[in-house]
Design a protein that fits this description.
By secondary structure, the protein is of the alpha/beta class. The protein is built from eight helices and six strands; from the N terminus they run αβαβαβαβααβαβα. The chain has helices spanning 12-17, 38-51, 66-76, 93-98, 111-115, 120-126, 137-140, 157-167; strands spanning 24-31, 55-62, 82-86, 102-105, 131-134, 150-152. It is globular. The model has no long low-confidence stretch (mean pLDDT 94).
């Protein structure tokens, strides 16, 4: 909790520098591994943009899935709707959390994610941040749907989009 205190103000300079002013920002901060399901978030983006044109995705971090994500973003033609920051020093992480409106944890349903509890949702909760996450075992251990976050069917871009609508935050 001490490492991730509640964010009490938005880093307006960072938000402007990244071109995210007047946008509703869906964010993920972490490692880009296949099981994180980031391709599900990107696949949901065209559907979300049709309903909410001011939505943007902020991805902070990196990993072996980064080239595939960049290819998917290009194939969908949403390069101007996704901000890929890369890795940032731990001392800067709070600045990026401050500009995210809704944190998204779209983990795939595989043995690892059904049995291992992730830390990222705990970071968001410590900061009193709004979050959605796939309904996998590790997330269910942490999140009470509708109370401490919102769960959606894993591996399903339409379900992820519906969770964003359900939050009714945009």
């Amino acid at each position: 909790v001490e490492e991730f205190p509640p964010v009490d103000r938005i880093d307006a300079e960072l938000k402007a520098r990244l071109g995210l002013n007047d946008c509703f920002v869906l964010g993920f901060l972490g490692s880009f591994y296949g099981y994180e399901g980031l391709e599900i978030l990107i696949a949901a983006l065209p559907r979300l943009l049709a309903r909410y044109p001011a939505i943007r995705v902020l991805l902070v971090g990196g990993g072996r899935e980064e080239p595939a994500l960049k290819a998917q973003i290009a194939a969908l033609g949403v390069q101007d709707k996704v901000v890929l920051v890369g890795r940032v020093p731990h001392s800067e992480v709070a600045r990026y959390y401050s500009i995210v409106d809704l944190l998204v944890y779209p983990r795939m349903s595989i043995r690892l994610t059904e049995t291992v509890t992730p830390l990222k949702p705990l970071e968001a909760m410590a900061q009193k941040r709004l979050l959605i996450a796939s309904d996998v075992g590790g997330h269910r251990e942490l999140i009470r749907d509708g109370a401490t976050g919102f769960l959606f069917k894993p591996d399903d871009p339409a379900a992820l989009a519906a969770a964003v609508y359900r939050v009714n935050a945009v």
